[in-house]
């Protein structure tokens, strides 16, 4: 059985391959829906309840407000989302996923969700807790690294 260091190295080397395979999957879903991967990402953020704020969506997608407005226009034309008045402040808009397209999205994700669910069902509580902790920490680290790159804070690349 591999030791702790070997397992950590294997995990570190496997993670980029996992990310690449999920990017390929999401690109295939976007292609099937006739949208760009960024539009699909936006749809997932809205549908999953992360946010419905256009400003926050633009930030999460790394887009300017102008670029996000164009993306949202395309998504409305594709009947994926709609702009709706904010119930708390009618001067503001919210983005809402169109329910009739969500069934299609759910169907496209079903095979992957099923396979991942089967694998997760084999983990005990301790393994699941470790996985959730790792994923949350990894999300925070990736967000921090992306912010640093956008601000030019990560330093020069040696070359």
UniProtKB/TrEMBL annotation:
Q: Which organism is it from?
A: Amycolatopsis ultiminotia
Spell out the protein name for this chain: MarR family transcriptional regulator
According to the entry, every stretch annotated as the HTH marR-type domain falls at 1-140
One family from Pfam that matches here is: MarR_2
Please list every transmembrane segment annotated in the UniProt record, as residue ranges.
none
